[in-house]
Amino acid sequence: MAVTRMTYAEAAVLAVANAMRDDPRVVVMGEDVGRGGIFQQYKGLQARFGAERVIDTPISEATIVGAGVGMALVGMRPVVEMRVVDFALCGMDEIVNQAAKNRYMFGGQGRVPLVMRMPIGLWANSAAQHSQSLEAWFAHLPGVVVMCPATPQDNYSMLTQALRGEDPVIYMENKELWGLQGEVDDTRVHEPGRAQVLRQGDDLSIVSWSAAVHTATQAAEALAAQGVNASVIDLGTLWPWDRDTVLRDAARTRRLLVVHDAVQPGGFGAEVAATAVQATGCRIARLGAPRIPVGYASRLEAVARISPAAVIEAALSLMADAPAAAAV
Amino acid sequence: MIDLYRTMARIRAFELAAEVASQGGVGVLGAKVDERAKVRGPLHLSIGQEAVAAGVCAHLRREDLLTSTHRGHGHTLAKGGNVRRMMAELFGRADGSNGGKGGSMHIADFSVGMLGANGVVTAGLPIACGAAHALKLQGKPNVVACFFGDGAINRGPFLEALNWAAVYRLPVLFVCEDNRYSATTSTAGLTAGPGVAARANALGVPSETVDGNDVEAVSAMAERLVAKVRGGEGPQLLHALTWRVRGHVSVDTQAYRDPQDLQGALDADPLKRARARALASGVSAAQLDAIDAEVQAEIDDAVAFADASPPPDVAAAYTDIQTTGAGAWL
User: Fold this and answer.
1) Which residues form the Dehydrogenase E1 component domain (chain B) (predicted)?
2) DSSP one-letter string for A241-309
3) S-S: B187 plus which of A321, B150, B249, B280, CB 3.0-4.6 Å?
4) Residues of A in contact with B319 (CB under 8 A)
């Protein structure tokens, strides 16, 4: 076991490097991966494993994903890089109609162990086409696992897990977390669909994933100073998601707040909230971005950003209107 | 020649049987589906285009791979797909090649390297690239045949995939099965410039055009091009000009089609032409009739097999989706 301090990007490099070292079937494909990828999330891999296994591709998103499907069907385990989720849309048919449906549609004749990396989240001053969080689109898609790591440890453990799967994984890192430092234990295993309770409080449960986990944690710390104790749960995997952990905590606190950077209407928070209210009768609130494209100017961009202050406000209003606890 | 004729005759018999079994199987414009129809939903028949599938697949080994279009029965049969299981798939039965989960539009037989018919035009090209890329990385001596239609050349992934295959020198034989129609619209008026072969050449994929209703010509050209691809010369493109006899889909009455165009398609029937050529070269009519009877018996047996197979268990709706996160989450 080795515990090392590293960045979110370095944790991803380590996960892929270990997989490539241990399994010759693992290959990487994507634009600019040879020079380490645009976020250095593939740093040094081409030098170490060669250009045949770390493949610089044309700017051809449909074929990056489609070729990934074909490779996977023929016994390889490709990792394909989409740069940002916004560009994954150029390969949407290949993701939705090919990768996700192959196993089912052909009656299990083939399998598609394909990891598709497509970072979500805002990206400072990068405007509307580089700032989307589209995880709900993919959680809605039968046939894929959806992972949204929040920390270097998660990025290492979850990507390691994704690389061991036998089905397509939509792997959504975050555009603004690449430089985040943290301890990484390279023996720690992520169990897909297992949430992490980062804080435990009795007053309300805050559920989140990806970068919003950090926003929620900051808010929870400030709330604690005001005497409001919130649980913070990092869902980590959006599909399958850890209903048991969320429902158990929501049943205990009777209040659930879901926080995500994605647009609120139709966001995955609605799924979590509806499930919780059906199962526990708890009070719910959702906090996501307004339904607007992300603007370039910092002042406009800030409108689409979920701030700790907004989380605090949402938490306090949920506390204020809390109905009497009902029997679960 | 006899083998090519047999493959074409098998495809024709299969398609005609599927067509009969699908009568009334689609509710069009509010019409009710005939409950007696065994084959339901969209059925894309390759009647008239058999020479392309037969001529190309004659030069593929069992371990070679193939990707196909929504009109994929012929390709699958020519690759050696199991006829009984294919027909059962069209019937939507448990013993179908896909367990009843795909139907005609997703006909496949992975056991013979046929990686599936695709409901999305052009979608097979990137997949073929990836399959070929894997073969190359694995150091295998195999190739991928990638069938697509003339309509596919106007979608972006066509350009992406040809460029990709050329850049990495992948063992792909691209086969443009040009039946002159993009669904129900003539492709000629929709395609700028000189067409598929010129586009391929411009992308560094050498291309050749052949009369796609002359099975011997297709076979001879495919033999040459497959040898090049297998020999590491990179991707090649075979442009086979053919005719679609039936509509885009079984319920398409082709009212949009010029009668002369349709007559041209019937006159160019690849089976008729192959038969005439076989007779001229000394094959007896009795021999050809025997082949016709033999494949018809094979198809009759497949229909009986399909009809005797049960529909899939309802529980199958929830299987083969994904291992992690599967199940009936409502």
Assistant:
1) 36-313
2) --HHHHHHHHHHHSEEEEEEEEESTT-HHHHHHHHHHHHH--EEEEEEE-SSPPPSSHHHHHHHSPPHH
3) B150
4) 108
